[in-house]
Amino acid sequence: MRTATHLFPLGTGINSATTAQSRLCSSATWYPNATTIPLPNGSWPTGIASDSQQNLIVYDQISYGLQKYFTNGSSLTLSTGWFAGDLFIDRYDNIYFSDHYNNWVLVLTNTTGKVTIVAGNGASGSDPNELQVYAPSGIYVDRTASVYIADTFNQRVVKWLAGAQEGIVVAGGNRLGSAANQFSFPQGLFVDEVNDGGIYVCDSTNERIQKWLPGASIGITVAGGNSWGSNLNQLNGPSSIFVDTNTRIMYITDQANNRIVGWLLGASSGIVIAGGNGQGNGANQLSSPNQFAFDSNRNLYVVDQGNQRIQKFAFNASSCTNYND
Q: Coiled-coil regions in this chain (predicted)?
């Protein structure tokens, strides 16, 4: 692992306990009117994740910094000087983030506060040995600390094993296009470690979610793929995804439709779970939402990028009576 040039001490000790996925149910809903998370004036959040203590980690593109917002309302700057894209927090509360401008993926280690490079060599390109990533966005870190990266401008997903000096292509890599073995600017991704190891990818300008099984040479469209539009069988600029491995429901940021949708694997259409009431700044509206995160209480936090705010949609606990469906 190569050391980056920025080192900022963490101001708090966080237990590196395993972060358990919040189980949902097939009938889960969230209250339609969100509350706005207080942020400093002038903030412009573009990335978000929630740690095991329900603190929010937010990337602010004005300060180029990773900010930590504690549940008691206080905050802390963890590190600055980055052009972060997606964030991912592993089970030890280490914070991984893609730096799309500098073409690498980094990790801020929970126990030391040290930032190190885990993938990419800082140069844009499509090196045949997969040494490089070009404008990386979505990331996922599995239980073995292997990092999956949406290598956006290279139209592929690459996997870097823990400590590796180069990655391997696990999806795409066949130039830009709309065929089943191609991507058009992949962004968010999720790996199902519980069921079949499938890699779910937001194929953003193909307006679809593609699922690639391990070793597959083509992907399968599991959401969207019906051109861009606002119907519930369509997506318009999907940018991030989370899959509940219990219910097999995909939660997707449908960015240009200003909504978050839930889409059951195998279904022909989705349902709106947040936003979807036109572009705006009302409590039930979003404007170009980018990323989202769930806390351990199943509350939904959305980066409402166009409104420069973070919206919290409270989980409706009465909507779930059976967590085995």
A: none
DSSP 134: S
> For the residues of 269-292, what is the DSSP string, one character each?
S-EEEEE-S-BSSSTT-BSSEEEE
Backbone angles phi, psi at 8, to 5 degrees: -130, 125
Of 14-18, 103-107, 119-123, 258-262, the one with minimum mean pLDDT is 14-18
Q: Which two tokens stand for residue 143?
A: 């239980």
pLDDT in tens, 151-193: 999 999 999 999 898 899 999 999 999 999 999 999 999 999 9
Give the per-residue pLDDT at 1: 40
Partnered with residue 144 across adjacent β-strands are none
Q: How far is CA 280 from the centre of its chain?
A: 23
Residue 199 pLDDT more than 60?
yes
Spell out the residues 6+ positions from residue 282 whose beta carbon is closer than 8 angstroms to its own. Answer: none
Over range 54-68, report the average pLDDT: 96
Token reading at 237: 């600029």
**Distance in angstroms (rounded) separating the CA atoms of residues 270 and 89:** 27
All domains in the chain, ordered by first residue: 2-8+34-319 (2.120.10.30)
Q: Is 135 helix (H, G, I), strand (E, B) or coil?
A: coil
Point out which residues pair with 210 in neighbouring strands.
201, 221
Amino acid at 289: P
User: How is residue 286 annotated by DSSP?
Assistant: B
Tokens 């279904």 belong to 267
As a whole number of angstroms, the distance between CA 20 and CA 317 comes to 18
CA-based angle 249:292:227, to the nearest 5?
60
CA nearest neighbour of 11 among 115, 116, 110, 117: 110
Contact 136, 100 (CB under 8 A): yes
Minimal CA–CA distance to 311: which of 296, 291, 320, 319? 291
CB atoms within 10 A of CB 20: 9
